């Protein structure tokens, strides 16, 4: 299966890299705290330029005031222009998106009921966090930016790839290094945990394939707002939880179902990032939910998915005879709703970063409450 992935990735990256070049522009991409990584988009279908293809004009969207070096290292909005290739490579991995995956591993370890504060267990968890965060999330973000390059030329022409700050060949090399590093960590963890079946490796491989088909032709899951955003939510909630639980205990069917249901909240979080890309998505024919339903309806779909999912999980915990955990989860939903009205529902584009910075910490704490409930 690994060889098939390698072949597909090589063909997908190389062929697109040679067939379609984006004129260099100057200028960085917003990402958000927590789940919100920079939205994944895909390139439009190939068309013959001799048939009169009309290319959208790239607006002037350079960050004002030169941008922040700190934001550049995190890969978020307001980043400074950078010529150092290592800083650009770090920016492509969007470190600001790593914490949710790291937290997911913590939740999985907690849900296993078998994590102990020993040197060995702490070391295992750190390697699992490195696999989920810097390696595989970094791989996902880099490959997304690669296949985003034409839409970024419309929405955010100052990002590293469309601006020409880094070459496409260098991006492809980074994709391979991060992917193989993540899969290597997964294999080490299976041996370390004494697994007879390499479950962590297959989870890592499955997540890597999901990231690839999300962004790349021919499947390009991102073309469909529902499927694409749920895949994104599952990759941020379910997969790292499964890896952490499988590393320290047993991954059971009820946990798989519970976390997949929780991923509906992740779907809502993914929609947050769709609002700032409406212009490019519409130009490229992508059916994100704000494009398909309009911004007004999409913002209510977004908060509804987040809130209804968590309330349902609280109801499940109450029915399972764990009222204190259910009440704790409900208490964590209240500030999320407050910040939805305070920021997101007022203006999802203007306040996206503020909303996620203020509301998402309560959501991830709710994940831990649920994990602890399932471990007892």
TrEMBL record:
The chain crosses the membrane at residues 195-214, 226-243, 255-276, 324-345. It is a multi-pass membrane protein. It is found in: Plastid, Chloroplast membrane. It is an enzyme of class 2 (transferase). InterPro entries: Chl_synth (IPR006372), ChlG (IPR011799), Prenyltransferase_related (IPR050475), UbiA_prenyltransferase (IPR000537), UbiA_sf (IPR044878). Belongs to the UbiA prenyltransferase family. Chlorophyll synthase subfamily. This is Chlorophyll synthase, chloroplastic. It comes from Linum trigynum.
């Amino acid at each position: 299966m690994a060889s098939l992935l390698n072949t597909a990735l090589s063909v997908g990256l190389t062929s697109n890299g040679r067939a379609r070049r984006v004129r260099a522009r100057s200028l960085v991409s917003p990402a958000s705290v927590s789940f919100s990584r920079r939205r994944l988009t895909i390139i439009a279908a190939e068309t013959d330029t001799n048939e009169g293809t009309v290319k959208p004009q790239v607006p002037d969207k350079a960050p004002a005031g030169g941008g922040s070096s700190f934001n550049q290292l995190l890969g978020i909005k307001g980043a400074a222009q950078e010529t150092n290739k290592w800083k650009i490579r770090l920016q492509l991995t969007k470190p600001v998106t790593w914490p949710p995956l790291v937290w997911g591993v913590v939740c999985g370890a907690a849900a296993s009921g078998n994590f102990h504060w020993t040197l060995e267990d702490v070391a295992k968890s750190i390697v699992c966090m490195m696999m989920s965060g810097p390696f595989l999330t970094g791989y996902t973000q880099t490959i997304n930016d690669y296949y985003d390059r034409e839409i970024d030329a419309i929405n955010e022409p100052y990002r590293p790839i469309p601006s020409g700050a880094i070459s496409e060949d260098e991006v492809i090399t980074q994709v391979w290094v991060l992917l193989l590093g993540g899969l290597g960590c997964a294999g080490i963890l299976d041996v370390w945990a004494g697994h007879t079946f390499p479950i962590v490796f297959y989870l890592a491989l499955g997540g890597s394939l999901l990231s690839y088909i999300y962004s790349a032709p021919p499947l390009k899951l991102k073309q469909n707002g529902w499927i694409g955003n749920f895949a994104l939510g599952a990759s941020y909630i379910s997969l790292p939880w499964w890896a952490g639980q499988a590393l320290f205990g047993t991954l059971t069917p009820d946990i798989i179902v519970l976390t997949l249901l929780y991923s509906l909240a992740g779907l809502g979080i993914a929609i947050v990032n769709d609002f700032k890309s409406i212009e490019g998505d519409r130009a490229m024919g992508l059916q994100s939910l704000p494009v398909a339903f309009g911004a007004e309806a999409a913002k209510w779909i977004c908060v509804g998915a987040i809130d209804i999912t968590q309330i349902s999980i609280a109801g499940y915990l109450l029915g399972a005879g764990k009222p204190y955990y259910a009440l704790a989860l409900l208490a964590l939903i209240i500030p999320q709703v407050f910040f939805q009205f305070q920021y997101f529902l007022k203006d999802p584009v203007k306040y996206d970063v503020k909303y996620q910075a203020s509301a998402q910490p309560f959501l991830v704490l709710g994940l831990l409450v649920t994990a602890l409930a399932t471990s007892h």
